[in-house]
Design goal:
The complex is a heterodimer of chains A (278) and B (288). Chain A is mostly helical and 278 residues long. Chain A has 13 helices and 2 strands. Chain A folds into 2 domains: 59 residues; 164 residues, MetI-like (MetI-like fold). Helix content of chain A is 76%, strand content 1%. In chain A, helix 4 runs parallel beside helix 7 and helix 5 crosses helix 7. Chain B has one domain: MetI-like fold (Orthogonal Bundle). The longest helix of chain B is centred in the first third of the chain and has 34 residues. The chains are: A mainly alpha (278), B mainly alpha (288). Chains A and B meet through helix 1, helix 4, helix 5, helix 6 and helix 7 of A and helix 1, helix 3, helix 4, helix 5 and helix 7 of B.
């Protein structure tokens, strides 16, 4: 009897868990699904009650985004900023992280200061930067965005890569140096191939943060250097919000990052905690 | 010669990073300190030295600032008390051997990588007082619904719910990493002594998970104190000033009124507060 009741209890527990999983999944997905649905709705299907789940789809909103908003220039700017930030951040942080991991430069304090920079409230940092960029004529220029994104991503990539370097046994390099390689050769031929996947992870996270960055782009750009997030924020008109085009642009902004997220699925916690949780 | 090379190489390797990190923090810091002693106004081009008046005003007289500080703390505490238990619940679900567990994990990762300005504005539409799907669904379920972002009493709750939707998965994934590394032995002996599932959770799981729960909470608090994007996406600080957190107030002072002097003073105060908080707490994490 006891055995049977336990079995029933387990079955009920399992059913409840499955139910909970389904509910949580639905709540998580709903806003994303609603965004996509709204992006293929006509305006009269958007501004209506009750909300419509069945409707005649249209691609007008996407046409609007490509033809009548600055999405394409925004995309080019975003890609420029993302690629340049990665190109600067990854090599510099690789060297720094290697040095921190192997030689413990600065005895931990330096590394800690670097991390603190990442914790700065962006809005507090932007006030002096705004004046500096204004004096240098760098307002509405992608250079300013590249600079700030580099500053805010560098601490992150250094810490993330630091963790990965620590996982590579030092013996490997030492063995190579004993066999006559220079330290640089050992680094290039033994450490670099081992750390390559980690570099890809760091690059993808830098891409995520830079692509999603809004505050700097909002304050430092007006028209020439606007990014995708800046374009997405600009669908407010005198006759209200253009929900359809907004949803279309938001979908275009969000979906590429979903693909990257799936690529780094295994490392997502590690990335978002700067390597504190593996 | 060789000895020298070995000695300086570690510093040489960190040098480029240090130049960027120190150069781009110290130089602006000097600027901020300089402007914080002036009443610089970029709109009227007024720019005089006023000593510590900005600080005095910020700390003693600016009731709007005090208000936004209280709102930020309330927002952080409120959001945390939704997303921590929720995250723990999701982590416990993820830790069970359920069919489709990997799909579930992939799904809850999605909000973490969605740009808040993009998905936040979709929530703005979902919260719409007239056509919003959330208001509609809540009225269906409970017979009535608040006006969410249009109601000063509910606007902050709306942002908290949005933030928890986006970040409870983050808490869940951190805690899951902890759950998966718990040793099985204590549970086995607890089962032998006849402990209930609830007792095992209360007396084994929770104590063992405490370091990671603290870590997740600290990461969230640091982010919550800086919250800007969701406000810019969903409420624009409104209605009235109902959701004007520190970051948003600072944005208004600096980039709506262009009082750069006063904004610099608030920036520095905000920066010091966050740095002190993070230094104290992160050092605690480092010891965990």
């Amino acid at each position: 009897m006891v055995y049977i009741s336990r079995k029933i209890k387990n079955a009920v527990g399992n059913a409840l868990c499955h139910f909970a999983v389904i509910i949580v999944s639905l709540i998580t997905i709903f806003p994303l699904a609603w965004m996509f649905m709204t992006s293929i709705k006509m305006e009269y299907d958007i501004l209506t009650l009750p909300p419509k789940f069945l409707f005649e789809p249209t691609f007008d909103n996407y046409l609007f985004v490509f033809e009548r908003s600055k999405f394409i220039p925004g995309l080019i700017n975003s890609l420029t900023v993302v690629l340049a930030t990665i190109a600067i951040t990854i090599p510099i942080s690789t060297l720094a992280a290697y040095s921190f991991a192997r030689f413990n430069v600065g005895g931990g304090h330096l590394q800690f200061y670097v991390l603190t920079v990442r914790m700065f409230p962006p809005i507090a940092a932007i006030v002096p930067f705004f004046v500096i960029f204004r004096n240098m004529g760098l307002l509405d220029n992608v250079l300013a965005l590249i600079l700030l994104n580099t500053l805010f991503n560098l601490p992150f990539t250094i810490w993330l890569l630091y963790g990965f370097f620590r996982e590579i046994p030092q013996d490997l390099e030492e063995a190579a140096t004993i066999e006559g390689s220079t330290r640089f050769e050992a680094f290039r031929e033994i450490v670099l191939p081992l750390i390559a996947p980690a570099l890809a992870v760091a690059a993808i996270f830098t891409c995520l943060f830079t692509w999603n960055e809004f505050l700097f782009a909002f304050i430092l750009t007006r028209s020439e250097a606007i990014t995708v997030t800046r374009v997405v924020s600009g669908f407010w008109t005198e006759r209200g919000m253009l929900w359809g085009p907004l949803s279309a642009a938001a979908s275009l902004c969000v979906i590429p990052m979903f693909i990257f997220a799936m690529l780094v699925q295994r490392y997502i916690v590690r990335g978002l905690t700067f390597g504190a949780v593996k | 010669m060789k000895l020298n090379k070995e000695r300086y190489m570690p510093w040489l390797l960190v040098l480029p990073a240090l130049i960027i990190v120190f150069g781009f923090t110290l130089y602006p810091l000097f600027h901020a300190v300089y402007f914080s002693t002036r009443n610089t106004d970029l709109k009227t081009n007024i720019d005089d030295f006023i000593g510590v008046d900005n600080y005095r005003y910020a700390l003693n007289y600016d009731s709007t600032l005090a208000d936004s500080v209280i709102k930020t703390l309330m927002f952080a505490i409120g959001s945390l008390s939704i997303q921590m238990p929720l995250g723990l619940g999701i982590a416990l679900l993820l830790n069970r051997e359920i069919k489709g567990q990997r799909v579930f994990r992939a799904i809850i990762t999605l909000p973490l990588v969605a740009a808040p300005i993009a998905i936040g504005q979709v929530w703005r539409y979902m919260y719409h007082y007239e056509f919003g799907v959330i208001k509609y669904a809540v009225s269906l379920l409970f017979g009535t619904s608040p006006n969410w972002t249009a109601d000063p009493n509910w606007a902050m709750v709306s942002i908290m719910i949005y933030d928890s939707w986006q970040w409870a998965p983050f808490v869940a994934l951190i805690l899951l990493a902890g759950l998966q590394s718990l040793p099985p032995e204590p549970y086995e002996s607890a089962t032998i002594y006849g402990a209930s599932a609830l007792q095992k959770f209360r007396y084994i799981t929770l104590p063992k998970m405490r370091p990671l729960i603290t870590l997740a909470a600290i990461f969230r608090i640091i982010d919550l104190l800086k919250t800007y994007d969701p406000i810019a996406a969903i409420t624009w600080g409104g209605p009235g000033r109902a959701t004007e957190l520190i970051s948003y107030y600072l944005y208004r002072v600096g980039f709506y009124y262009f009082w750069i002097g006063y904004a610099s003073a608030i920036s520095l105060l905000f920066l010091y507060a966050v740095i002190i908080f993070t230094t104290v707490t992160l050092q605690r994490i480092a010891r965990l």
